Each structure stands twice: as C-alpha cells, then as structure tokens.
Amino acid sequence: MALQIFRTKKIVSHSDSNDGLKRCLSAWDLVFLGVGAIIGTGIFVLTGIAAATQAGPAIVLSFVIAGLACAFAALSYAELSSAVGGCGSAYGYSYAAFGELIAFIIGWDLLLEYGISVAAVANGWSGYFQNALTALGIPLPDALTKAPVLGGIINLPAAAIILLLMGLLVMGVKHSAKANNTMVVVKLITISIFIGIAVFNVHPDNWHPFMPYGWFQTLPDGKTAGVFAGASLVFFAYVGFDAVSTAAEEAKNPQRDLPFGIVTSLVFCTVIYIIVSGLLTGVVHYSELNVSSPVAHALTLLGYDWGAALISTGVIAGLTTVMLVLYYGLTRIIFAMSRDGLLAPFFSKVNRNTQTPVRVIVLCGVIIALIAGFVPLGELAELVNIGTLAAFVLVCLGVIVLRITKPNLDRPFRTPFSPLFPVLGMLSCGALMGFLPSITWLRFIIWLIIGLIVYFSYSIHHSKLVKE
C-alpha cells in the first residue's frame, strides 16, 4: 500500500499527451487566457478596499510584494509546464514529482478551487448585471436575483451566465479563446480610459501619509493592517495565471508558449495593478475608497459619470473572462484525472466533432449553475484562497524535487536561481496561508478528508499505473 500511494507517473512528451484535444492555441492566446483570469474583481474592487482598510497609498507596495510572491510560483509553473506538460496543471506536476496520493490530493483541491471560484464570480457578475439593468430601467425582481435563503427563488443571472459559458466551451477551445480575447480587449480599453482621465487629476496631497498603517500592525479591533497585510489581501487578485498551464494539450507549441503565456500575463497584470492603484489613491483620498466599485466611484467624484458607466461595462466583461478561463481549467483537470484512472472514465471522453470533453463541460456547468443560482457563497469563497496557495507551494517544491530525481529531464524553460526562487515561492505562499482564518482551514480539511475517502475507495484500485 505504501509503495502504491507514492508511485509516480512517467513523463511523456507534449506531442504524445493530447488524447484527441485540438492543438489550436497560439502564444498570445495563452497570454490573453492569463490576463482574462487575473484581471477581474482585483483591479475594479480590491484595489480600493485594500487601500482604504489595509495600506493606504502604500497599496502600491502591497501589489509589488504580492506580485513577487506570485512571480516565484509563476517561474516554477513555467518550468514544469514546459518539462512535464499535460493539462492537469499542478496535479500532473505533483504526479511526476511526489507520487499518486499527493497528486490526487492537489487535484481534488484544485476541483474545489476552480469550481467555487466560478460560482463565486458568477454571484458578483450577477450583481453588476442587475445594476446595469437597473440603470436601463428594466431591473429583474428580487425573486430572480437572490438565492432562496436570501428571500428569492433563484439567482437567475448567475446561473444563466454559467450555462452560456458552458455552451461556448462545448463549441470548442478556439471559439472560447476568441470570445475571451474580445472581452479582454474591452476591459483593457476601460482601464486605459481610467488611466487617461486619472493621470490629469492626481493630487499629490492624497498620497500623504503614504504608509498610514506602517508595514504591519494589529488594530484595536484585532484586525491586521499595513503593507504586508495588504499584500496578503491583494495576492488573490493575481490568482488565475495557473489556469494557463491547463492549456498544455491545446497549445500549438506548449514547450515554448506556456512559459511565455504564464510569465508575460503575470508581468503585464502586475504593472497594470501598480499603475491603477497608484493613480486611484492619487485622485481620491484612500479613506473614501472602501466601496463596492472604487474605480467607478473615483470617476463619479471627479465628475466623469460617463466614465463610471463605462467602468461597469469593463467589470462585467472582466468577470466573464475570469469565469470562462477558470471553468475551462476545471474541466481540463477533471479530464486529466479521469484519463489517469483516478476518476471514472466517463469524464475523459472527447467529442469527435468539437474535440472537447463535452461530458465534463456539461456536468460541471449544470452543477456550478445550481450552486451559483441557489447558494449564497459568502465565506465559502475563502476556500479558493487556501487551495490556490497549497497548489503554489507544491509546484515550487516540485521544481526542486524533479531537479534532484530527474536531472536529465528536458527543460526548455528553467527557473532561474533554483533552488532559491522556488524556496522563496514556498516560503512566501506558505506565510500567506497563515493569514487565513481557522474556519477556512477547517473547511479545507473536511474537503480533503472526503477526497481521501474517494481515493482509497476508488482511485487507488483503478489507477492506470495499476495496469502498467
């Protein structure tokens, strides 16, 4: 038994590992996937809230620190995506480095991370969509925009957008990528308009005091504040670049393009976050930014009502791309686990016409739509944070382990200054896990226990490695 749970999967070449999926994504498609996943609520919501409650104008430094922590993980993802490949992301890398049990645990963890993320973002998208309908004078009744426990019947917009994305993904990954690219352009245009307006309305006095809470301090109410506390909050604005690695088997040249897509999207989004957060705290005093849509609020205060309306359009487009990319990543991880025998073979069937795993896409779409429509997520969304950080830690460790166990493995991209950068990634992501509340840890442990039951009752007996 002990030997079985630590058996590792043989690393196969990228060209031998697509099992019928269509290789059609270019390097820039992958970059747009990363930007689509990263730029969402983080830039339109989190920047203002973190500035108002955590770091003040020094939120710029929080984004730099969080960006560095993500960069260490991203470089590790880049190395393993080019060397190990597969559409399973951190699950597949763990299978090659640590063995089957650890791989299953991280795969199971990723199912929760991606699934809850999509449902949570759908709830946020529904709110902005309802605001847009209200502005047009055709609001939906509360019964159709709230979950039953909140007094409604169903959150219809949240469920509907999931089903719409389901249809898009069923059509094929190239159609999905084109839709994603279009929506990314829309939100980048809205961000550019904000920057163009804000740069001429900066009042340097708003940047004083620059660090009202210092680097880190505990407030009288027991909450933490400061640059480092702000970094732990805004870190989750970057989450999503790992979804790029799930496109390994649909990329035209994965060994070259995956590292490019992962690193380029993260660097680009980090620069955008720093510029927007700096300008936002320059045009409006940070104490006024603790609102649900701080960027739009800032433009309203400046008298640009049309700009605020445009930002709302950008938010809707931004949240749609986040859902699309994470939903895509979820289906590919389930597909990879099923192909390895750790989940039922039902999930690894590829439709001949669309060259997509239609069964997984439809099943996930129906389940997530039901969750988004009938469950108010609330604190459950914090499970996304801990799952992501756990995956980042293991990927960084995986680089170190594979450098030792498989020194001759072909690595088209190599993490610089290894093992220093992977170790820094493990330490920074591990430290950020410590900021999460105990209830999040408890829920995470319960989910993992359920996963262990599935593994020892089914997966260990049906693994492809048993047959080999």
CATH architecture: Up-down Bundle
As a percent range, the share of helical residues equals 55-70%
C-alpha end-to-end distance: 16 Å
What summary fits the major beta sheet? 2 strands, antiparallel
Give the strand line-up of the largest sheet. Answer: 1-2
Q: pLDDT below 50 for ≥5 consecutive residues: which ranges? A: none
Name the CATH homologous superfamily: Amino acid/polyamine transporter I
Beta fraction of the residues? under 5%
Count of helices? 17
Rg over CA atoms, rounded to whole Å, is 22 Å
What's the mean pLDDT score? 83
The strand count comes to: 2
Order of helical and strand elements: HHHHHHHHEEHHHHHHHHH
Describe this structure in words.
It is built from 17 helices and two strands. It is an all-alpha fold. It has a single domain (22-467), classed as Amino acid/polyamine transporter I (Up-down Bundle). Strands 1-2 form a two-stranded antiparallel sheet. The protein is globular and about 65 Å long. The two termini are 16 Å apart. The relative contact order is 0.21. The mean pLDDT is 83.
